[in-house]
Specification:
The chain is an alpha/beta fold and 354 residues long. It contains 15 helices and ten strands. The protein has a single domain, classed as Alpha-Beta Barrel (TIM Barrel), CATH 3.20.20. The longest helix is centred in the N-terminal third of the chain and has 17 residues, at 58-74.
């Protein structure tokens, strides 16, 4: 029997950039290429979010943006957030389509820090399309061993503890004006050293009042490597953590090798984060992981023990009734426990953004 429930939302994707055919300045399949890119940026004192302008075929952009939103809707999404826009051309294309009618999927935009430094545009107040805030980038990634750690990686040079792009004072200085203007500040931070740096910066920007931080919507993207004490600090800070439902499964072996068995067991601790009352949202980080929210829902329910959530909790994190509705072949929450691994096979019948 068909089930209509709160719509799936994705708070962290790169769908628009991928749809436009923009290729990253590194080889996604090569950790060495990514590491070289991260270290080169760090040496120049810049970050992946500081670039401005993409090589875009503007004549095709309108169709590409609409195709992307139609694809997202077909997967069950009613709203997505583009996590780091480097060129206003994307936003202009979406506004042109919005003038002709409703968008297939609501869009929120985090503007890349480099583009934001040149000047933000006005909010629209439009439920279909609006600017949310600014994305900064504090460290690298786990796979290429460039996320910033408090202790070195377990499988490389004993003094290699990753790349920290932004020290706390620098991040605070860059974010202050934007935060005061009411923009959400979202910062990529995977390693524990980077997470600590971001929290220190947020203390400088918002003060040490958790209510103020929560009200601002300040976010940390990913937050994968955390000790129990750091997890407590994140929860107590009032910051919102955007986790990636599929990362704990796809990174499981990489994390064990890069971090060592004990540290890996403490990482991707979504169960601990949610259980402590942390403010949590989810996003696929497409194209790193599949855009389908049903794939993410499955992975969040069958991943490693510390990241595994029950179906009802995971479903609540990944949906938002205020954003719209998604109609499925069945209610994922009513699946037999033995069939949870088959959640991704549930069919999407349709979506209705609010």
């Amino acid at each position: 029997m068909a089930f209509t429930g709160p719509g799936f939302v994705d708070h962290h994707t790169h769908l628009l950039r991928v749809a436009a055919g923009v290729k990253p300045p590194y080889d996604y399949t090569s950790p060495e290429s990514i590491a070289q890119y991260h270290r080169a940026l760090s040496a120049r004192g810049t970050t992946p979010m500081d670039s401005v302008g993409d090589e875009i075929d503007v004549e095709r952009l309108d169709a590409q943006m609409m195709g992307a939103l139609e694809h997202a809707s077909s997967l069950g999404l009613v709203q997505l957030t583009e996590a780091g826009m480097h060129d206003w051309a994307y936003y202009d294309a979406l506004q042109r389509r919005r003038e002709d009618g409703r968008l297939e999927c609501r869009v929120r935009v985090l503007v890349g820090s480099g583009l934001a430094a040149e000047g933000m545009r006005e909010r629209t107040g439009d439920p279909d399309l609006d600017l949310l805030g600014v994305k900064f980038y504090a460290d690298g990634w786990l796979g290429p061993r460039t996320c910033a750690l408090c202790a070195p990686f377990s499988d490389v040079h004993p003094e290699d503890d990753g790349v920290l792009f932004l020290e706390p004072v620098v991040l605070a200085r860059r974010a202050q004006r934007l935060a005061e203007a009411g923009w959400v500040i979202a910062t990529h931070a995977i390693g524990d050293r980077a997470i600590e740096a971001v929290l220190d910066a947020y203390d400088m920007v918002f003060g040490d009042d958790p209510a103020a931080v929560a009200a601002s919507g300040a976010r940390i993207e990913h937050a994968q490597v955390m000790s129990s004490a750091l997890l407590d600090r994140v929860v107590d800070s009032g910051v919102t953590v955007c986790i990636q439902p599929s990362f704990s499964r796809s990174d499981e072996e990489t994390a064990r090798v890069a971090l060592g068995a004990e540290r890996a067991k403490r990482s991707y601790d979504w169960s601990g984060l949610v259980g402590r009352g942390g403010r949590v949202i989810t996003g696929a980080d497409y194209p790193i992981e599949p855009l389908s929210p049903l794939v993410g829902l499955r992975d969040l329910c069958v991943g490693p023990e510390q990241s595994r959530l029950d179906v009802a909790t995971a479903f609540a994190l990944m949906t938002d009734a205020s954003a719209g509705t998604t109609t499925l072949d069945a209610d994922p929450r009513e699946l037999d426990p033995d069939d949870v691994a088959d959640i991704a096979d549930i069919g999407v019948i349709g979506t209705a953004p609010s």
